[in-house]
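Section 5.1 Outputs to date
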Amino acid sequence: MDKTTHFGFKTVDESEKAGKVAEVFHSVAGKYDVMNDLMSGGLHRVWKHFTLTTSGVRAGDKVLDIAGGTGDLARGWAKRVGKTGEVWLTDINSSMLTVGRDRLLDEGVILPVSLADAEKLPFPDNYFDAVSVAFGLRNMTHKDAALQEMCRVLKPGGKLFVLEFSKVWKPLSPIYDFYSFKALPIMGKLVANDADSYQYLAESIRMHPDQETLKQMMLDAGFGKADYHNLTGGVVALHKGFKF
């Protein structure tokens, strides 16, 4: 019997989810950065900056950016690790990866790039000092398997950074729901000519595990310690996992 999972608020066969998510990101890749700035009022840049500056990543480190899309975090990691370090930009979606690679090349940032599934990472055990995934974990079919893979490729002492939409502070919920389910699809329609993809993105945020649940999932995946920091009233949380 086929297993099922969620695609936004819909229930689909597990075998169908990756394809459906791929359709969303093939569709939005060209307008992804513009829409990110619009949707968050530019706050996504602040959240990513916080991730980079609190990471402890330093010159010479090896960093893997998963679901790295248009390259925001990868660019930041590259600046931190310098010429003696190594940063991989990866994504499962070829359209997003192409946009990210070309954008970084235009800026003179040359990084290794890989089309990679987070649930089956093509990297050796104990290789990276840090792994990051920003706004990508919630789209993965088997989050537990992906977290185990992230733990596997980290060196002992390495850190995982998961920047993701999370459970918002309760008093903010009504206005946040109105914005997510009314305003976002309209923006998607007007700017990206794609209301459905942004409806899915809003739904996928609501279906993602809350802060404490994700923390426990990281511990269950093999991390020796995990904690999180809420940003913007819990609209986003930065989870950190430590491999012992």
